[in-house]
Sequence to fold (332 residues):
Amino acid sequence: MNDTIQMSSCHDAEKISHILMIGVVMVGSIFGNSIICLLLIRFKTLRTVPNILIANLAVIDILNALTNMPLMIMWYICKVPYLKGRPISWFIVTWYVLFMWLTVFNLTVLTMDRFGAIVHGIRYHSWKTVNKAKIAVLFVWLLAAVYTYGMFALGLDIDVGDAPVLVYRIHYLKNFGRHFIIPGYLVPFTIMLIMGVAIWRTVHTRTRRISRFCSVGKHVKNDVKTAKTIGLTVVAFFCMGVFPMLLHNIATIHGSWPHFLAFFLTHLNSMANPIIYSLNTPRFRKAILLFLKDPCGKSQPYMNSKNHRDLYSTTRNVTCKTEKHNIWITYL
Fold:
């Protein structure tokens, strides 16, 4: 083990390329997710249940980019000599894993919200509130903290002296980490996959039953867009969550490109989240354009649009005879 982990500098070409890759992701994550937070601060009409969850994901990604990414450059790539020993290693590894679970659990709750909105329709819309979304955010943080520090309580007695962080991380993973990380990823992924299939079946069934001349045809298109967003969520979670976890277990040589790629893909998810979960929706795109034109004003997206008022009124009252209680518009 000591042969594969040696203290080194950051001056060779390979390490510089690794630092640049992480640096780009770090800047992109902070910039993209900050825009999401600013939009929700600026526009009250964007403070819906799913957007509250998206904002929480943005905050998680910003904090991850500000703390874990620079720390990763220091302890994993550059292997700075002062990041070593049991207390520092325990804190750095647990902090990294905490944000990993925060992302996983928040995405799971976000998928559950879209599942309720599409599959259960009006019953879910009449039940959900912004306050309940805030409670869900608190639950995500508490659950992630309990899962993380409960897991690493098993590693408090691991002591390999002044070994660097990476050595402690290997010991944690070998002794107890795999027993928690594998189900911690696979179970949420399975939940998201099952709900994604249920969402697709619901949208597909409703689309077939509704005539294209029906007045709620446009509403079904919104459901289809939401279902596609859920599909992107599942694919992104697999590519940047489950796959890196599997790659970590396959790549036995620490510091190699496959091992670094696993870390990189996990961090890349932070930069991709604003695009996949937020900017993919028309309302956010309109909000961004309005924010650029009027960053400090009081105007809201669709606030002055007569067509939107008419559409909103229609979505609350109009139904098809064959789908009177089943088809309702789903807003992101």
